[in-house]
Amino acid sequence: xxxxxxLALSGAQExxxxxxxxxxxxxxxxxxxxxxxxxxxLWKPVQGGYExxxxxxYNPALYYEGRKKAGRKGACSRWHGPNCxxxxxxxxxxxxxxxxx
Length: 101
Fold this sequence. Notes:
The protein has about 100 residues and is mainly alpha-helical. It folds into 2 domains: about 1-60, no CATH class; about 60-90. It has 4 helices and 3 strands. The chain has helices at about 1-15, 30-40, 55-60, 60-80, and strands at about 20, 45, 50. It has a 3-stranded antiparallel sheet, covered by helices on one side. Strand 2 and strand 3 (about 50) form a beta hairpin. It starts with a helix and ends in a 21-residue tail after the last helix.
């Protein structure tokens, strides 16, 4: 169950498959259980926590969305200057009301 929760948490926090050691209680996992997940190849131990094996292979949208945001910000800065506040250059798309008559 903890492994499944780690997938949900990583997706919700957009952490690219990184699970901190401090989040283990939130996932209802002990250090021993986390080590078992690494032993069977579901997680890889990394500094400060664990990495979900093959996360970006199966969740490329989050990886590419981060790159798209960085690209938009760079283009905006290049064309409009570093203090641009145009809605079309913001990180999040602006929602517009639609009048369906």
